[in-house]
Design a protein that fits this description.
This protein is of the alpha+beta class and 279 residues long. Among the domains are: 17-114 and 121-141, no CATH class; 153-218, no CATH class. 42% of the residues lie in helices and 12% in strands. The chain contains twelve helices and six strands. It has helices at 5-8, 21-33, 67-71, 81-101, 127-140, 157-163, 166-172, 174-180, 189-196, 200-212, 250-253, 264-278, and strands at 37-44, 47-52, 55-60, 103-110, 153-155, 216-218. It has a four-stranded antiparallel beta sheet, covered by helices on one side. The protein has a two-stranded antiparallel ribbon with strand order 5-6. Strand 2 and strand 3 (55-60) form a beta hairpin. Helix 9 (189-196) crosses helix 10.
């Protein structure tokens, strides 16, 4: 599939890679045509981009907290409509970052919902600006050596010492402290962002800093070992697979030969066997 001029211009080198090229192409086309609908992106984590008249209203992705989760963050005080619009913009940026930081599969358009909810009152975000800001975020974390979705985090000795010292934790900020509390070898940046109702990008930035400061490490990937199947008692294990008639599929490609008439040699052999039986 050809990409739009935005991806080909070199302005988005990270988003212009093969995996995200279709997302950029469809989003840029929607902005140019003032299209309304839902762009569904498959992958890990994947998500939905909601467009209205070519502008992105909201982004839903299991890879990042949504508007409601960000608003429910403990200690947060809402200030009305202006605050809601700001949080909606933050959630949309975070959602596209989560989608493009993971594995991007295919894109397909869905019809807009027939029963619009409160999100339709939002003014929407300029699509090209959102893509450029996502490019900036991905580029800023390119050296971070951590995947927000795949890598699980572990504490180092320095991290454990910081977690056990409230005085040092206050010196480095409460944001590090709340992240360190959830690091147990089973949580990724995405998991911690969901638990804290914080932006995935913000959590990933702090994790990269703590990795550089030797406060955190990345847990080794677990290898799944398949159980060994023991041979039956008294039996032997065959080293070769059992062959089944027709398993090669040759008869599906080359039809079997039709019956052939007997040759003279076969006829003579049959005559000899007949004479032997009569003697």
């Amino acid at each position: 599939m050809t990409t739009g001029p935005l991806a080909e211009s070199g302005r988005l080198p990270v988003l212009g890679r093969e995996s995200a090229r279709e997302l950029v192409h469809e989003s840029a086309n929607a902005a140019a045509r003032a299209h309304s609908g839902i762009l569904r992106i498959t992958g890990e984590p994947g998500g939905d981009l909601h467009f209205r008249d070519g502008r992105i209203i909201t982004v839903d992705s299991p890879g990042a907290p949504g508007v409601r989760q960000l608003l429910s963050r403990p200690g947060r005080v809402s200030t009305g409509t202006a605050d809601l619009r700001l949080v909606a913009q933050m959630a949309a940026l975070d959602g596209v970052f989560a989608i493009t930081a993971g594995w991007v599969g295919s894109c397909a358009w869905q019809a807009p919902p027939t029963d619009p909810d409160g999100r339709q009152s939002l003014p929407g975000i300029d699509t090209l600006w959102l893509l450029e800001e996502t490019e900036r975020r991905l580029n800023a974390l390119a050296h971070g050596r951590v995947s927000p979705h795949r890598n699980h985090l572990v504490l180092t000795e320095t991290g454990r010492a910081l977690l056990g010292s409230p005085e040092d934790a206050r010196h480095n900020g409460a944001q590090w402290q709340e992240i360190l509390l959830w690091v147990n070898g089973r949580h990724s940046c995405r998991d911690i962002a969901m638990l804290l109702s914080r932006s995935l990008y913000a959590v990933t930035v702090e994790v990269v800093r703590m990795l550089d400061g030797d406060l955190l490490g990345i847990a080794p990937l677990e290898r799944v070992q398949l159980p060994m199947t023991e041979p039956a008692r008294g039996g032997t294990r065959s080293l070769l697979p059992r062959r089944r008639r027709g398993a090669s599929g040759i008869n599906d490609t080359l039809p079997p030969r039709p019956p052939q008439p007997a040759t003279r040699a076969l006829q003579r052999t049959a005559a000899v066997r007949t004479s032997e039986r009569t003697q």
